[in-house]
Amino acid sequence: MRARYSAYESGNVQFILDTWHPDHRFEEDIDDIREFANSNEWLELRVLKTQGMPRHATGMQASVEFVAFFRQKGQQGFNQHHEKSTFRFLEGHWYFVEGKPMPPIKLNRNDSCPCGSGKKYKICCGC
C-alpha cells in the first residue's frame, strides 16, 4: 500500500497498474491515473488501520484504511483522500482489488498541518 502511494507521488503509473489485481484492472484507466498522480503534490500518507495482513497467505484478502493528503499543483492548502482498500494475495504478491471512499478525517488542532508548512493545523489551514 505504501509502495502504491509512493508510485502516485513519483508518477510511476506502470507500478500502479502492475499492482492492481488482474481481475479488476482496466488499461483504459491509465490516462486518468496519470493525470491524477501528476496533477497533485503528494504531502503525507497516514495508515489508520490494517486487517488480515499475514506475510504469505495465497488467496488471502486484507484491508488497509488510510488517508493520503495532497494538493493540486500550484494551489495552497490540502485535500485528503480517505479510503478503505482491499488487497488480495496472489502468486507471491499483494494486489489492489478495490477502494471504498470514506468521509474525511477530523484533524486535531495541535497536529502538524498536512500542507507541509511545519505549523500546527490550528494556526495554518485549520483556522
UniProtKB/TrEMBL annotation:
Task: List the SUPFAM superfamilies hit by this protein, alphabetically.
Answer: NTF2-like, Sec-C motif
Q: Which InterPro entries match?
A: NTF2-like_dom_sf (IPR032710), SEC_C_motif (IPR004027), YchJ-like_M (IPR048469)
UniProt domain YchJ-like middle NTF2-like: residue ranges: 1-99
Cleaved signal peptide residues: none
Question: Looking at the record's lineage, which domain of life comes first?
Answer: Bacteria
Pfam family membership, one: SEC-C
What is this protein's name? Answer: UPF0225 protein
Which source organism?
A: Marinibactrum halimedae
